């Protein structure tokens, strides 16, 4: 797919929405991101500043329609669920719709709808975000209510049990009712560890979700839902001055607690040196179509460390290897008749650690051995012979070609800006990401490949019962 | 509309004997064009289920001098999103492209419509992909339930068959049959409807229409067999090993040209719409925690509609969920919405209108849907006043006429208890 919503697509794919289908002076003058040497125009032209209570405010104007998107990103996600309390960040996100000091339970969404708007929220491993899309004149209404629940969310005890059932139904729907959902969850747990922050399901283990309490929520909210740990993003038909005034009036008065950590350094356990297992084979009677996974632990962009230099080269590598038609895996597996589909995934912006993951749906007449050998041969060829300049140029071109399409939607700009800033990426890294991709060289792609793909990997098979 | 002053001017553009609707907007350098023919999977001959959809997928797998990979590269090099698809009652094409890539998008779309290659290896790949999708959709309760629901509702009409085909039909389709599926639709015919949105002027669009469609043969798309009323089939259980059951429910809807259409939409927003405010969401999700999401709406098929909805709940709670669902259906049928509910829903539907037009693809799709439903050009502009004029009495009358609590058909896929 095109890269336009590259970051937006990532957060949407990895996140769980709440509803199915559903005064102070500025510490520093707002400033646009500084361009890297010789670079082009910033993608969004966003301004960023910080209130004295620590709230990061981001504004990007877009006058296409008389509407605005109002988002608050908290730099906390399922990755911060306490030990034994998996699912807390997500359950709490559901409970944020159950009232705050000046907004009764359920009234938030009802008021937004009454004004023609839409609201929802989502939890990923790295962020929790709440958003409303409204006609521009309704911005003060939603900002006031969002600020109210940042400061005073109630988590009413009498509503927790029904919502717990909603969360467990969500879990059944996403994970438990299909063999593919169950396999995906088992894969992460076997790869990273069942109780490692990266290996636990975002939605939580069912026994742990069953035990989450109101006190857990109050404590989590107190610790993480503070202005210094939040990023307010407002985009659309609104001026920077109006956003500055609004931010100050509605959010500036919230008494700040210190941030629990820097946004990119959250004290998460390190990634294991290698996947905990080499192989996971799951057989289920309802499986109609086999699935193959192979994954490697890989560095990612945030937090900025020595290994982060590999992140953009890995993004190019991932496209070159399995970014759709014409990629190496497509040629070796799909065009050769071994597989129905073959893809490579890598999340550049995953906080703390990433992974490179191949996913293949084999043709029914391809044996597991033959498919695995073909994958291994492709990886070996990559390690032995490297890549060509033409391949790198093609991937860079295709990853960046659709950059401007991110402006063709209301949600892409705030999601790309907010999800990046909330994991500590610098604004200029977001505004000028195409330039960073274009700067990737063949040597860097080869270094990334040799660093990551030569390591121990894990292989997984989901197979029909009785299959070899 | 609540003082928003929002309006969406729509231009009617003629070129090459064709007419397109255009919402021109130069704020972002992007253009989306979408078009459709009536027919789709409904025109697949018996035994050839899935032909239209598979043929649509093959149109972008090599055309003209470009093989499948070269075609894909040509699209991806310029981030052109070009797609063809077939659904229950139509065959659609469309693309989104940045302005500099527009000529290439037009060239590739035309090639795909006039010179698709259907090379044996591409056919084998796409057939394998379609088979895998069909099989995979039957792994869980949702896919199994949906297939059974539509089959039971339209037992003797193509609308009841799986749009993507079956394992048997896909395995047997020949290249000739796939080419015939394209030939049934790809015509400069009265049924070809076109809409566009984004950074393109009326003159530019007029010039582009013959370039896109000029080489297609003239002719009419054949009519599908007349759609019968959605059949009431009571409660149907599809056994699937799963901790949760998928529940699909439905009943006959009303035609899109029924004068009560918008009032029905208003009633359904209140009963079963999106967001947290609907009655079903309130009583089934919020109060009782029975499901993650529930909703229902009018699904249009050939100008008629089916009122269809779905949710999912733990097997042990299926009985309770259905009891509440039927009670809400009955309560709305008997009493209609309250004045406060109507006021809120009208405010939402009116105030939400500007939010529908922030994405060029969506804008083009809305214009196309208006054309398919036979709406006049000022349909959107006058919608707020039509909505504002709906009285509680009218809404209650439409609710009573539309909603048939005893006529609700239900498919439960899973291992339900309490039925």
**Largest sheet: spatial strand order of chain A:** 1-6-7-5-8-4-3-2
Largest interface: A-B, 75 and 76 residues
H-E order of chain B? EEEHHEEHHHHHEHEEHHEEHHHHHE
Structural domain count of chain B: 2
Describe the largest sheet of chain B. 6 strands, mixed
Low-confidence stretches of chain A: 1-13, 21-30
- Output the number of helix runs of chain B: 15
Radius of gyration of chain A: 23 Å
Poorly predicted parts of chain B: none
Corresponding CATH superfamily of the largest domain in chain A: Metalloenzyme, LuxS/M16 peptidase-like
Q: Provide the CATH architecture of the largest domain in chain A.
A: 2-Layer Sandwich
Distance between the ends of chain B: 46 Å
How many structural domains can be distinguished in the coordinates of chain A?
2
Specify the helix fraction band of chain B: 40-55%
What kind of oligomer do you see?
heterodimer
Structural class of chain B: alpha+beta
CATH fold node name of the largest domain in chain A: Cytochrome Bc1 Complex, Chain A, domain 1
Beta-strand fraction estimate of chain B? 15-25%
Averaged pLDDT of chain B: 96
Percentage of residues in helical conformation of chain A: 25-40%
InterPro entries (chain B): Metalloenz_LuxS/M16 (IPR011249), MPP/UQCRC_Complex (IPR050361), Peptidase_M16_C (IPR007863)
Protein name (chain B): Insulinase family protein
Organism (chain B): Teichococcus coralli
GO molecular function (chain B): metal ion binding
Q: Which secondary structure elements does this structure contain, and how are they paired or packed?
A:
The complex is a heterodimer of chains A (468) and B (419).
Chain A: H1 6-14, E1 16-17, E2 31-32, E3 47-50, E4 56-61, E5 67-74, H2 88-95, H3 107-114, E6 118-123, E7 128-135, H4 139-152, H5 160-176, H6 179-192, H7 206-211, H8 214-224, E8 230-236, H9 240-251, E9 279-284, E10 291-298, H10 311-322, H11 328-334, E11 339-346, E12 354-362, H12 368-385, H13 389-400, H14 412-421, H15 427-431, H16 433-438, H17 442-452, E13 458-464
Chain B: E1 11-15, E2 18-24, E3 30-38, H1 51-58, H2 68-77, E4 81-86, E5 90-98, H3 102-114, H4 120-137, H5 141-153, H6 167-172, H7 175-185, E6 193-198, H8 202-213, E7 235-239, E8 244-252, H9 261-272, H10 279-286, E9 295-301, E10 304-314, H11 318-335, H12 339-351, H13 360-372, H14 383-388, H15 392-402, E11 409-414
Parallel strand pairs in B: 2-6, 7-11
Antiparallel strand pairs in B: 1-2, 3-5, 3-6, 4-5, 8-10, 8-11, 9-10
């Amino acid at each position: 797919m095109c890269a336009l919503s590259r970051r937006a697509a990532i957060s949407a794919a990895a996140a769980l929405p709440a509803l199915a289908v559903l005064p102070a002076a500025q510490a520093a003058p707002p400033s646009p991101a500084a361009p890297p040497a010789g670079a082009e125009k910033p993608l969004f032209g966003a301004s960023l500043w910080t209130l004295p209570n620590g709230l990061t405010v981001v504004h990007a104007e877009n006058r296409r329609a008389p509407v605005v998107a109002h988002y608050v990103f908290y730099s906390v996600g399922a990755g911060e669920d306490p030990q034994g309390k998996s699912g807390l960040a997500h359950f709490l996100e559901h409970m944020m719709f159950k009232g705050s000091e000046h907004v009764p339970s359920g009234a938030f969404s009802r008021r937004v709808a009454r004004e023609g708007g839409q609201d929802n929220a989502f939890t990923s491993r790295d962020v929790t975000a709440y958003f409303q899309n409204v006609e521009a004149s309704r911005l003060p209404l939603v900002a006031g209510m969002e600020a109210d629940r940042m400061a005073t969310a109630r988590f009413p005890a009498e509503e927790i049990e029904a919502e717990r059932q909603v969360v467990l139904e969500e879990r059944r729907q996403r994970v438990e009712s299909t063999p593919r959902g169950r396999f995906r969850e088992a894969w992460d747990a076997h790869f990273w560890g069942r109780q490692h922050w990266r290996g636990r399901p975002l939605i939580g283990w069912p026994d742990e979700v069953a035990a989450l309490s109101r006190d857990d929520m109050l404590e989590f909210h107190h610790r993480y839902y503070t202005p210094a740990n939040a990023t307010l993003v407002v985009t659309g038909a609104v001026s920077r001055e109006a956003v500055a005034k609004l931010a100050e009036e509605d959010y500036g008065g919230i008494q700040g607690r210190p941030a629990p950590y820097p946004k990119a350094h959250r004290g998460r356990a390190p990634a294991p040196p290698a996947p905990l297992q080499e192989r996971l084979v799951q057989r289920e009677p309802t499986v109609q179509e086999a699935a193959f996974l192979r994954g490697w632990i890989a560095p990612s962009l945030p937090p900025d460390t020595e290994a982060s230099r590999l992140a953009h080269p890995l993004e190019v590598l991932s496209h070159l290897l399995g970014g759709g038609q014409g990629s190496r895996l497509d040629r070796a597996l799909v065009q050769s008749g071994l597989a129905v589909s073959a893809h490579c995934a890598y999340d550049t912006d995953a906080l703390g650690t990433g992974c490179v993951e191949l996913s293949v749906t084999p043709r029914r007449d391809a044996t597991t051995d033959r498919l695995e050998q073909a994958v291994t041969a492709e990886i070996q060829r990559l390690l032995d012979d490297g890549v060509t300049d033409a391949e790198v140029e093609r991937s860079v071109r295709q990853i960046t070609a659709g950059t401007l399409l991110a402006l063709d939607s209301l949600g892409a700009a705030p999601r790309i800006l907010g999800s990046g800033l909330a994991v500590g990426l610098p604004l200029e890294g977001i505004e000028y990401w195409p330039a960073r991709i274009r700067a990737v060289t063949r040597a860097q792609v080869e270094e990334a490949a040799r660093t990551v793909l030569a390591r121990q990997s894990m292989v997984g098979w989901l197979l029909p019962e009785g299959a070899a | 509309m609540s003082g928003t002053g929002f309006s969406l001017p729509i231009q009617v553009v003629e070129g090459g004997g064709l007419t397109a609707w255009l919402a021109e907007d130069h704020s972002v350098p992007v253009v989306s064009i979408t078009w459709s023919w009536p027919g789709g999977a409904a025109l697949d001959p018996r035994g050839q289920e899935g032909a239209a959809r598979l043929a649509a997928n093959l149109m972008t797998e090599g055309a003209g001098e470009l093989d499948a990979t070269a075609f894909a590269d040509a699209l991806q090099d310029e981030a052109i999103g070009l797609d063809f698809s077939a659904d229950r009652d139509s065959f659609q094409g469309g693309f989104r492209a940045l302005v500099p890539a527009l000529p290439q998008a037009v060239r590739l779309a035309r090639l795909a419509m006039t010179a698709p290659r259907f090379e044996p290896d591409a056919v084998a790949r796409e057939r394998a992909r379609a088979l895998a999708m069909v099989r995979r959709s039957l792994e869980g309760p949702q896919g199994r339930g949906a297939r059974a629901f539509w089959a039971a509702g339209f037992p003797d009409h193509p609308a009841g068959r799986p749009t993507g085909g079956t394992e048997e039909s896909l395995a047997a389709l020949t290249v000739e049959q796939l080419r015939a599926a394209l030939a049934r639709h790809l015509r400069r015919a009265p049924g070809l409807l076109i809409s566009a949105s984004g950074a393109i002027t009326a003159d530019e669009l007029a010039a582009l229409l013959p370039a896109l469609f000029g080489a297609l043969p003239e002719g009419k798309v054949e009519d599908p067999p007349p759609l019968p009323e959605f059949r009431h089939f009571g409660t149907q259980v599809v056994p699937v090993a799963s901790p949760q059951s998928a529940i699909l429910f439905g009943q006959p809807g009303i035609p899109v040209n029924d004068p009560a259409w918008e009032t029905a939409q208003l009633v359904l927003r209140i009963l079963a719409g999106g967001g947290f405010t609907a009655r079903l969401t309130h009583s089934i999700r919020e109060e009782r925690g029975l499901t993650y999401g529930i909703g229902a709406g009018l699904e249009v098929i050939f100008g008629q509609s089916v009122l269809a909805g779905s949710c999912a709940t733990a097997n042990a709670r299926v009985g309770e969920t259905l009891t509440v669902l039927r009670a809400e259906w009955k309560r709305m049928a008997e009493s209609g919405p309250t004045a406060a509910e109507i006021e809120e829903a009208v405010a939402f539907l009116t105030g939400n209108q500007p939010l529908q037009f922030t994405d060029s693809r969506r804008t083009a799709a809305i214009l196309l849907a208006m054309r398919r439903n036979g709406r006049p050009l000022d349909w959107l502009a006058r919608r707020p006043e039509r909505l504002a004029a709906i009285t509680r009495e009218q809404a209650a009358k439409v609710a009573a006429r539309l909603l048939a609590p005893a006529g609700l058909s239900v498919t439960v896929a899973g291992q339900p208890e309490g039925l």
